[in-house]
Amino acid sequence: GWEEHAFMFGFCLQQEKLLEGYVGFANLPNQVYRKSVKRGFEFTLMVVGESGLGKSTLINSLFLTDLYSPEYPGPSHRIKKTVQVEQSKVLVKEGGVQLLLTIVDTPGFGDAVDNSNCWQPVIDHIDSKFEDYLNSESRVNRRQMPDNRVHCCLYFIAPSGHGLKPLDIEFMKRLHEKVNIIPLIAKADTMTPEECQQFKKQIMREITEHKIQIYEFPETNDEEENKMVKKIKDRLPLAVVGSNTIIVVNEKRVRGRQYPWGVAEVENGEHCDFTILRNMLIRTHMQDLKDVTNNVHYENYRSRKLAAVTYNGVDNNKNKGPMTKSPLAQMEEERREHVTKMEKMEMEMEQVFEMKVKEKIQKLKDSELELQRRHEQMKKNLEAQHKELEEKRRQLEDEKHNWEAQQRVLEQQKLDASRYSTLSRRVKKIFTK
Amino acid sequence: MLASNLPWLLLHSRNRQSPFPGLGHSGSGSTLLGYIGIDTIIEQMRKKTMKAGFDFNIMIVGHSGLGKSTLVNTLFKSQVSRWSSGWGGEHKIPKTVEIKAVSHVIEEGGVKMKLTVIDTPGFGDQINNENCWDPISKYINEQYEKFLKEEVNIARKKRIPDTRVHCCLYFISPTGHSLRQLDIEFMKHLSRVVNIIPVIAKSDTMTPDEKNEFKHRVRKELETHGIEYYPQNEFDDDMEDKNENDKIREAMPFAVVGSDKEFQVNGKRVLGRKTAWGVVEVENPNHCEFALLRDFLIRSHLQDLKEVTHNIHYETYRARRLNDNGGLHPISANNTQESNL
Question: For residues A343 and A63, which has the higher predicted lDDT (pLDDT)?
Answer without folding.
Answer: A343
